[in-house]
Design brief:
alpha+beta; Immunoglobulin-like; 2 domains; 2 helices; rod-shaped
Length: 233
């Protein structure tokens, strides 16, 4: 009897056995609903994430486009600023050149002004003090050009409005001391001819140790002294 029961259990003819869950069906439905809900949430999250990725890519492209436009604007502004800078440099160079030219002109005008002032002071001394029709020596200047050279200049003039022509000689003499002794120098006579006025200048050689004290100018005509002027030095 036991052998038959054991054989029936071990052979094909043995009765079928079913394994059933011990969970009640309401819990099984609830668990299924939770799994379905989780799956739906996961699918929804994946969908939204895909939209965000697509939107991010689109936004990135938009930002890239805006950056390109901004870059072009900056390049355009840089080009414009470079052009303005080059123009400013050119204007600055032109202004510096103009300033240099004005400076040179100003220096030339200052030199001309000094020369004219010196000439004015010189000619102010040339006004004759007396003697209608007389010849005069005015504006005598004597100064050392070097230790052994003496420069001089003067003006010979006639005060008449229409004076006769003067033909004569100019004599210049220097007086002073040399090595503690009286010293005198007579320059060679110069022939001159003038009707109204004549400006003369020249240089004389003299010893380096000579101490000048006076210079005398004489105008001679036919052996007669017509005018003389002495300047203390």
């Amino acid at each position: 009897m036991r052998f038959r029961l054991l054989r029936r259990r071990l052979t094909i003819s043995a009765p079928r056995m079913a394994v059933r869950s011990t969970l009640p069906w309401p819990l099984r439905w609830l668990l299924g609903a939770v799994v379905l809900g989780f799956s739906g949430a996961l699918a929804l999250w994946a969908f939204e994430f895909g939209k965000e990725i697509a939107g991010l890519e689109q936004d990135t492209r938009g930002q890239l486009q805006r950056l390109r436009v901004e870059h072009q604007r900056v390049l355009s502004e840089m080009t414009e600023l470079k052009s303005v800078a080059n123009t400013a440099d050119s204007l600055l160079l032109a202004e510096r050149s103009a300033q240099e030219q004005l400076k040179q002109q100003l220096l030339a005008l200052e030199d001309e002004n000094r020369r004219m002032s010196a000439d004015l002071a010189f000619f102010e001394q040339l006004i004759p003090s007396s003697g209608s029709g007389a010849i005069h020596v005015r504006g005598l200047r004597v100064q050392r050009a070097s230790d052994t050279r003496l420069a001089w200049q003067l003006l010979v003039m006639q005060s008449e409005r229409q004076p006769p022509e003067f033909n004569g000689q100019l004599l210049i003499s220097l007086a002073g001391t040399l090595d503690g002794r009286p010293w005198r120098l007579e320059a060679p006579a110069q022939t001159l001819s003038l009707r109204q006025h004549l400006r003369l200048e020249g240089q004389l050689d003299l010893p380096a140790q000579a101490v000048l004290k006076s210079a005398t100018v004489r105008l001679m005509q036919g052996g007669t002294e017509r005018a003389s002027y002495t300047q203390k030095l």
